[in-house]
Each structure stands twice: as C-alpha cells, then as structure tokens.
UniProtKB/TrEMBL annotation:
Pfam families per record: DnaJ, DnaJ_C, DnaJ_CXXCXGXG
One annotated GO biological process: response to heat
Places the protein is found: Cytoplasm
Organism expressing this protein natively: Rhodococcus spelaei
Name the UniProt record assigns to this protein: Chaperone protein DnaJ
Annotated CXXCXGXG motif repeat ranges: 179-186, 196-203, 218-225, 232-239
Domain notes: The J domain is necessary and sufficient to stimulate DnaK ATPase activity. Zinc center 1 plays an important role in the autonomous, DnaK-independent chaperone activity of DnaJ. Zinc center 2 is essential for interaction with DnaK and for DnaJ activity.
Zinc finger CR-type: from-to: 166-244
HAMAP family the UniProt entry points to: DnaJ
Protein encoded by which gene: dnaJ
Cofactor requirement: Zn(2+)
Subunit structure, as described in the record: Homodimer.
Function statement: Participates actively in the response to hyperosmotic and heat shock by preventing the aggregation of stress-denatured proteins and by disaggregating proteins, also in an autonomous, DnaK-independent fashion. Unfolded proteins bind initially to DnaJ; upon interaction with the DnaJ-bound protein, DnaK hydrolyzes its bound ATP, resulting in the formation of a stable complex. GrpE releases ADP from DnaK; ATP binding to DnaK triggers the release of the substrate protein, thus completing the reaction cycle.
Length: 396
C-alpha cells in the first residue's frame, strides 16, 4: 500500500465519529463496533471480519494522540493539492532561485526524510515516521522490520482483602495471537518466506515521475521485505489469528483501585513472528464492610461502650491475617485513633503499613430497669465528684 493510499483512508468514517471527536468518543465508538463486528459474534461473516479489521486499524491510529496528530497533519497536507493533484506539471523543472519551475531539479523524496532538510526541521518524513514505521535516515532499515503487536487492555474486579494481600486470577482474552499452525511465520508449514526480489528485502521502492522521485513501501511485499508463496491456511499469511486464550495473572499485594498491571509480551502477537505487545490489566477493588484504606495504612472503626473508654480495656480487632489485641487506655476519648504498627497493607518494597483503629462509642437505645438505675446512680456520683462535662465550654 502506497503512502497516498494509506493517508486517503478515512479512519474517522470507519469509526463513525467526526474529525474533532474526543479521545473518549473514539474509544466508545471503537468498543461498540468491536463488540458488534467481532469474529466470535459473526462466525463465517467475511464482511463483518473486514469491517472489524478496518475499525481496529482506525482505532490503532486515532487512539494514539501522537499518531492521530501525524495522520491529521498528513491528510491536510495531501488535501491541499501539493502532491500530484495539480501542484506539479510533468516536464517542468523546479528552480529554487526563481521560486518556481524552470531551474534545478527538486526531489520530493527530500520532503519524506531524505537530504535537503536540516536535522530537526520537522519535514514531512516526521509526519509519516510514526504512521509507516520509518523516519528520516532510517527508512530502508525500518521498512522491513516486522510490526510489533498492539498492546491489549483488560479489567478485573477483586474483593478488598484479596487486593490487599495479593492473589492470582485467571483471565480469558479474545485477541490476535501467534498462529499455532505456522508459529507466527505466516508461511505454510514446511515452507519459508523468501526475500522480495523487487525491493531486495528493503521494503522500499523508488520511482521517478518527471522531475520528482518517490520512495514508498513496496507493493509486492507491502513493505515487509519478504514474500510468502504458500501462505498458512489458518492465518492467511499474517502469522496471527483471533483466538480465545486463558492466562493467569499474578496481582501483587497492596494493589490499589484503578491501578494497572503490565504483563510484558501478553498482548497481541506481532505480524510474521514480530514481538508481541503487552497486556495491561486494570484492577478495580470492591469496598469492604470492615476495612478502609489510607495509602498503605489499613483503617477500621471499632464500636466500644462508654465504660470501656472510661475504665480501659483490650479489644480484639480484625486484621488481614486474623486478629490482634489492641489496648485501650483508661480515659480514652471517643474517636481516638490507636495505631498498630506493621498490621496494614503490604508495601511493594517490603514491610507493611499500619493498622489505624478508631474507637467509637455505641450508645444503647434500650435499657432495662436495673441498667437505668445503675446509670442514674453513676450520674449522681459523677456530679458529687465535681465532674462537669461542659465545664469551660464556651456555650455554657
């Protein structure tokens, strides 16, 4: 596919969004179409499979801010008519001195990253560098480089305690993976790809049109530098195929809500044996009925009676591993936080945070006669001792 053919693709139309759509709009449109067109949901439907490939290709560009910017700039450049749409007349020569045609020869290849532009000028080659896999001074070297697989995102939801202590969870993924028949080469078992004779394995061909010289990906090998004469029947020469696979993901202790876990090489398989992309698993953590979290500290609220605060006591408090005894000193005020060292959430570098125990008075709603009489006797004794809970209070 030539550079012009690639740029003239309308990725916005493929996803059904406007050219000024936000990143969230692009993401939502792709997810909706991917669900509708996925091969698993449309077995044997060739049209749906082609549309699925098209929206996947569109999302790969529009979901990447850098690639999207390059794509937009390149499309505006081609739409301006400066490349073969009336801006050049065959047979004319371009004069740098006169500012028009008539003098020296101008090679359009300079615009695409060749000589004539100083380093850092940001020529057109920079625009196509991220889109075509090449760049200034490295087009021949990178054109035949196998394309790395795309990164894949997945999600999992964990109970609070499993997220805090760490757990191993199974995930089922449906995505392009290395073909099990040809082992990613794209060639039929027993055969191998051969070097493309047209570009000699570089993936790039050059042609002249009048005074202009063009360099573009080789049409015969599609820029890969190799040709497969007998494609694998299962993956049709791509080296990848959509399949559902199960993997085991180790969630480290102390993972927080919304955190992403990266698994290198577990993403989409690269074309023709290229490295696979990575898998990013976003972890969602459910709230717990007992525990809360403040960084690496574990928080818990323990109900106590008024008498326990006044006289002091030892509480049995739950932890992630079991229970621990927490001493409440006599005269502890309601709402005080008692700290237990090292009984919190495990830290990535080792050790653990603290357990923060908040004591909160539970007020009885119904008292029997004996309890009420005892409480009245206590209040009388309290007054006799001279204790005034509102003594010194500004509102007294």
């Amino acid at each position: 596919m030539s550079q012009r053919e690639w740029i003239e693709k309308d990725f916005y139309k493929d996803l059904g969004v406007s050219s000024d759509a936000s990143a969230d709009e692009v993401k939502k449109a792709y997810r909706k179409l991917a669900r509708e067109l996925h091969p698993d949901a449309n077995p044997g439907d060739a049209k749906a499979e082609e549309r699925f490939k098209a929206v996947s290709e569109a999302n790969a560009v529009l979901s990447d801010p850098a690639k999207r910017k390059e794509y937009d700039e390149a499309r505006r450049l081609f739409a301006s008519g400066g490349f073969g749409r009336g801006g050049y007349q065959p047979g004319a020569e371009y004069s740098t001195a006169g500012g028009g045609f008539g003098g020296g020869e101008f090679n359009i290849g300079d615009l695409f990253g060749g000589g004539g532009a100083a380093a850092g000028d940001g020529g057109i080659g920079d625009l196509f560098g991220g889109l075509f896999g090449g760049g200034r001074g490295g087009r021949t070297a990178t054109a035949s480089r196998p394309q790395r697989g795309k990164d894949v995102e997945a999600e999992t939801t964990l109970p609070f305690r499993e997220a805090a202590t760490g757990v191993t969870v199974p995930l089922r993924l449906t995505s392009p993976a290395s073909c099990t028949t040809c082992h990613g080469s794209g060639a039929k078992p027993g055969t191998s790809p051969r070097v493309c004779p047209r570009c000699n394995g570089s993936g790039i061909v050059s042609r002249n049109q009048g005074a202009f010289g063009f360099s573009e990906p080789c049409d015969d090998c599609r820029g890969t530098g190799s040709i497969i004469d007998d494609p694998c029947e299962d993956c049709h020469g791509t080296g990848v195929q959509n399949r559902t696979r199960s993997i085991t993901v180790r969630i480290p202790p102390g993972v927080s809500d919304g955190q992403k876990i990266r698994l290198a090489g577990q993403g989409e398989a690269g074309l023709r044996g290229a490295p696979s992309g990575d898998l990013y698993v976003t972890v969602h953590v459910k709230a717990d009925k007992v525990f809360g979290r403040n960084g690496d500290d574990l928080t818990v609220i323990v109900p106590v009676s008024f008498g326990e605060l006044v006289l002091g006591t030892t509480l049995s408090v739950p932890t992630l591993e079991g229970r621990v005894g927490v001493k409440v000193p006599p005269g502890t005020v309601d709402g005080r936080i008692l700290r237990v060292r090292g009984r919190g959430v495990p830290k990535r570098g080792g050790g653990a945070g603290d357990l923060l125990v908040t004591v909160k008075v539970a007020v009885p709603q119904d008292l029997d006669d004996d309890a009420a009489a005892a409480l009245h006797a206590y209040l009388d004794a309290e007054k006799a001792s001279g204790f005034d809970p509102r003594g010194g209070w500004a509102g007294a």
